[in-house]
Amino acid sequence: MNYKRILTIQDISCVGQCSLTVALPILSACGIETAILPSAVLSTHTAGFSGFTFRDLTDDMPAIKAHWQKEGIQFDAIYTGYLGSTKQVGYVKDILDTMGKDGSVKIVDPAFADNGKLYPIFDSVYVEAMKTLCPSADLLLPNITEACFLAGVDYKEEYGEEYVRGLLEELSKLGCSTIVLTGVGYTPEKTGVVVYQNGEIAYYEHRRIAKGCHGTGDVYASAFTGALTRGKSIFDAAKIAADYTVRCIEHTQGDPEHWYGVKFEPVLPELIRMLE
Ligand code: PXL
Fold first, then answer.
1. Which residues contact 103 (CB under 8 A, 6 or more apart)?
2. How far is the CA of 13 from the centre of ligand 1 (A)?
3. Candidates 15, 114, 119, 121: which one to mutate for ligand 1, based on the most atoms within 8 Å of Cβ?
4. pLDDT tens digits along 84-116
5. What domains does the chain contain, in order, with CATH numbers?
């Protein structure tokens, strides 16, 4: 039986096309049974809306895990994103360490910062806690900002290959030897993704679309996780996720009213074709 079941742990932003409302449809489109553990419920995401509600679900996690264990439920892959509290990071680490089947893959998207800054609810104590998740991850999926916070390296807008190598070497010292680093661009027109595996670097460069869209990190991480779980290599999954994310942005740009997320839904058939 090759029917894969994945668990994804991240928030429900009721409106805003990010986290679970992105991960669930993308993973389902990839043909993977997707179980969820919501880290928090928010009325919207926190990037651009004001006055959002926030219900932290940290205290529900131990009972949910205990029930799953009683039922003998385990997962082929576990993928984590935006979490609800520093205390929750400890529960999530325990789930990563205990709820996977033999040979399961654990993917951690730090999902706490972008463009040189932490997202509103997070602080340096949260960053310290996130460092402790790294040894439990087979694959870490940060953007450059998150990588800098975790590795304790100064964030730069412009950099070269040596800076990126140094950043990845520092980051891998936290205990995760495979890193997929997103948003790495060496020229104004291009950006790309660096795949770092046991000291080896591979780079996939693609078009940079001037206007960044919110939610592209979650689209990328979900498509990457879907492609990897479907049996693609790490580099091919990184490439497919990048191509899909670019297509989603192309589909969204030109609609100024759609500032809060990416229109990833109409492009799902293209992702499915990329997996064939
Ligand atoms: O896309 C990352 C993300 C997820 N969830 C919430 C967010 C953000 C980014 O701002 O606010 C609630």
1. none
2. 8
3. 119
4. 999 999 999 999 999 999 999 999 999 999 999
5. 5-267 (3.40.1190.20)
